[in-house]
Hints:
nine-stranded mixed beta sheet; two-stranded antiparallel sheet
Amino acid sequence: MKVMYKNILFIILAVITALVLVNVLHKQPSYNLKLETLKQEYAIKPTPSVDHSKLPALQKKFNTPQEVTEACISCHTETHKEIMNSSHWNWERLSYVEGRGISASGKNTVLNNFCIGSNSNQQACAACHIGFGMNDNHFDYNNALNVDCMVCHDNSEEYKKGSSMAGYPDRTVNLEKVAQSVGIPERNNCGSCHFFSGGGNNVKHGDLEVAQLSTTREVDVHMAVNGMNMSCVDCHTAENHQIKGKLYSVSTSNTDRATCEQCHTSTPHFSHVLNRHGSKVSCQTCHIPEYAKVNATKMAWKWSEAGKLKDGQPYSEEDSIGNHRYLSIKGSFKWEKNVKPDYVWFNGTADQYHLGDSITTLPLQINTLNGSYNDKNAKIIPVKIHVGDQIFDKKYKRLIQPKLYAANQGDSAFWKDFDWEKAAAAGMHDVGLPFSGDYGFVETEMYWPVNHMVAPKEQALSCVECHSHNGRLAELTGFYMPGRDRNKTLDTAGTWLIVLALIAVIGHGLMRILTNIIKNNYEKQVIDYDKPDITD
């Protein structure tokens, strides 16, 4: 009996000693060498090899922005051809879409549930086109002098497009100074369009806004001035002006995406468990716990409420933090700040609602992100879901492209005349589609993947935020997730296995004790029987 107890005690001490040694001798590294290497790489900012202020071709007065482009082409002789082959220029790209075949997708063909579409509204929308003179749908895409080099390459921070000026620069811009200050695109260049898409700061994306021009690590670890201080083109690299990365809402194919793995690799963690998550969970899911961290983003847009006037004039109402709650020209809005994303499966391919498509489901999906748990290429990604309603043709059962912008009243534009029927007729005429005259408003949804505003690693999601019954992934069904899901058969079987295991362990222990007692009593009786009787 004593030998058995000694053996058990020895085993317990050996296990405790082994655990202590493992924790003492096998500590995880306190820093990530891969990450340190990346930090060193991006800490060194490239030095321009050319000082454009000294180039003879730029030592002149420029009367038009086209003259600046002509000067650029005189040195960069073939660059305009690269730009004119890009989606930034053409506002569309050819790609294969399941069910459509090879088709063009982009701002010229795809609608959205913000300002709806660019067709018939080019003079205003061209404020975010890299060209000059886009005032209607007859823009000359083959004229190299229409290319706006300055909007992407100005480093003076003084260049800006004019409001509703068909893509021409504001009249206050000093063309000579800007032309002599060009260089690698900075955040301000990209942000002048992407931060303000949808008609205002942070309206569309939710994770791209003016605060990122100068921010902290808590808002965005990549763009933080007290951190990596990276520019957009550090990740969105380019070859022949074909920029890596695509806007998911208008991009259909899973090619040339800008991904976290291109810098961080597919095994960025010390933990194998976390690295294995990467096969089904995107980096953004855990590392962007919320978006719209500084300024609110628009979450809902009701076009059906537009057109109200006070004393015959359009008006606006603002909320407590200055965001438009209502505009006569656009309707009512809902804004949110510090928003937790929604989550969907995404394999990198998508479909969109194109001009002329029929409405088959409600609410209408303006864009569809493809993917499911059973799709080997799909991962869970965070998204912003923008909801609203917009005008549609009741007879033809399709969305209407209304004419919204005009410089003056009487041109059928809704923003001037506030007449939906006239605006619908003019817009559909411009895109070459019939309008029945019978219109209404239909609910729509649009998905915007969240890729920016990456938080510091200390703020990444904990396990329980997803692996729990009411966690972030509660609405993402179609697969079994530990900690969240229950299976009665498995749970019952598991419970009985545990109970039976405990019964077996306890029973085995009791049997050992019982047999040991019986053995001791038997040995005692034998000893007493063999012991000589001293009375004889």
